[in-house]
Amino acid sequence: MAKLSVTKVSSQYQDKTVLDHLCLTVESGEILALLGPSGCGKTTLLRAICGLQPISSGKICVGERLLSSVDFMLPSEQRGLGMIFQDYALFPHLSVADNIGFGLKSLKKVERQQRVAEMLELVKLDGLGERFPHELSGGQQQRVSIARALAYKPDVLLLDEPFSNIDAQVRSQLMQEIREILKQQRVTAIFVTHSKDEAFEFADRLALFKQGRIVQTGTPEQLYFQPAEPYVAEFLGQGNYLEAEVHSENQVVTPLGLVTSSRKLAAAQGEHMRLLLRPQQIQLAPSEQGPAVIRERRFLGNYCYYTVELAEHKLQVRSQQTQLELGQSVSLSTHAHPLVLFPNVSKA
Ligand SMILES: Nc1ncnc2c1ncn2[C@@H]1O[C@H](COP(=O)(O)OP(=O)(O)OP(=O)(O)O)[C@@H](O)[C@H]1O
């Protein structure tokens, strides 16, 4: 059974529907990223899970325990959830140790001190227990809030844009460290972000939001390489779209020539579709008679990003061939892979 389940949940602000029959499950020990643009309802869903936002349909459960339904709202403090905020939300007048021990008042003093010491060690802040939050860096403050949330062993940890205020230079390392801690402690977590890079780096699975609904859930690879719709494809990264006519059960005719799918196509022969190719799915080869020309080039170390002109198309190509020059003619190809085809709206 899923650890957290959100079933057909709707919620409104005044008359405006912000969550629309939304369904989501998080498995035990899993880190799920809720990903989506600003205003799509991510924070509202977290608030509903925490018990700060009423719902008008559906239910929210942890295991078999009901947290919210249309006519029931378990008080926030009885939900067994931990919460991490963007602004750390530490008590400024309490020391680091007292912040971490804040939710442990039911424990005896010695046990509490022991748990606080374990948590300080876990988040690599041993020796800093007597400091106050303003004496710590942003990354260290976020470690304190992780320690505070994990100290009372929550059933599910909710993280609302926890890395947004962290300096870009240390963000990636902090994310990796916190991910390791959550995995080591087998914490079930929901992580809200509008950054696909953060979602890729931190989560096991992504759920992509669109106007109050989840449009697709899956591993980063599934959403990136097998997006269910153009919205998903575009949110997760750059892509090239080419007109494609279905030629056989696993081939399409495109401006690149015949492109082969490594699995059977869902579209019928003769149908006009749009083929999605990620920049790294197009291969370049220098060729004097090649039909395409390099128009822009960005060198990025191990690889180059090229803008390649092919008839009226401008294609973005990522290639490890870093020696190609502006104005050079090239041929283009793509290896057989599971092709992603979307309906061709202009011909529909
Ligand atoms: N208290 C409120 N009263 C009325 N409308 C609200 C309220 N809070 C949020 N909204 C609206 O509900 C919608 C969803 O907001 P929400 O904060 O859940 O989005 P979000 O995806 O978390 O966005 P962001 O990434 O910017 O935090 C937005 O259109 C927002 O303007």
UniProtKB/TrEMBL annotation:
Pfam families: ABC_tran (PF00005), TOBE_2 (PF08402). It comes from Paraferrimonas sedimenticola. SUPFAM superfamilies: MOP-like, P-loop containing nucleoside triphosphate hydrolases. One of its GO terms (biological process) is quaternary ammonium group transport. SMART domains: AAA (SM00382). GO terms for cellular component: ATP-binding cassette (ABC) transporter complex. Gene3D superfamilies: P-loop containing nucleotide triphosphate hydrolases. Residues 4-236 form the ABC transporter domain. Keywords: ATP-binding, Cell membrane, Ion transport, Iron, Iron transport, Membrane, Nucleotide-binding, Transport. GO terms for molecular function: ABC-type ferric iron transporter activity; ATP binding; ATP hydrolysis activity. This is ABC transporter.
